[in-house]
Amino acid sequence: MLREECSDIKAFDSALRMLADAMMETLREADGVGLAGPQVGVPEKIFVTLVPNDEPRVFINPEIIETSIETGPYEEGCLSIPGMYHEVIRPRRIRIQAFDADGKAFTLDADGLLARAIQHENDHLHGKLYIDYLPEGEREKLLRLYEKKSKARRNRKRKV
Ligand code: NI
User: Fold this and answer.
1) CA-to-CA distance for 50 and 118, rounded, in angstroms?
2) What is the DSSP string of 100-137?
3) What is the Å distance from ligand 1's center to 58 Cα?
4) Residue 56 alpha carbon to ligand 1 centre in Å
5) CA distance 15 to 98
6) How far does residue 4's CA lie from ligand 1's centre (Å)?
């Protein structure tokens, strides 16, 4: 599912608001800054962000409409590839259009960690992961290490 193009959300109803609340709660518990639908088994265009010093935000059917020419590096991780991090270069500032959980349209200009989280989560809605930005050799190295770590984790679990 992490590799699928997500579908548009059509109904802004109580089920959607419950989904947004549940995703925010999951994100808070995971101590992350962003979480997208396909990461919780929902292949639809929704993600939430919880960036320090920023309010909790819900983005539905989002579209990044502008990105700055200026780019910068940041060590990214992903709740779907736990324990792994790698530097990714992305635009420093973005402008995004989306709907909130009540169906109200908004436009947001973001920079810093919020711009970073938005770009990372928005990618999830199009089946894209941050590892796709790495040079092939780096990506393979990361995935090999991740596989090794996951195996070690599974073995540990078996013992208890
Ligand atoms: Ni992610």
Assistant:
1) 10
2) -TTS-EEEEEE-HHHHHHHHHHHHHTTT--GGGGS-HH
3) 15
4) 17
5) 18
6) 14
Catalytic residues: 121
- CATH code for the domain of 87: 3.90.45.10
Record the pTM.
0.95
Q: Going residue by residue through the chain, which has 160 residues, state the pLDDT in tens, using 9 for 90 and above.
A: 899 999 999 999 999 999 999 999 999 999 999 999 999 999 999 999 999 999 999 999 999 999 999 999 999 999 999 999 999 999 999 999 999 999 999 999 999 999 999 999 999 999 999 999 999 999 999 999 999 999 988 888 777 6
48 C-alpha to ligand 1 centroid (Å):
11
CA 119 to centroid of ligand 1, rounded, Å:
10
Using the 8-state DSSP alphabet, how is residue 152 labeled? H
Range of the domain at 25: 14-134
CA distance 93 to 104: 23
| CA dist., res. 22 & res. 151, Å (int) | 29
Does residue 93 fall inside a structural domain?
yes
Q: How many domains are there within the chain?
A: 1
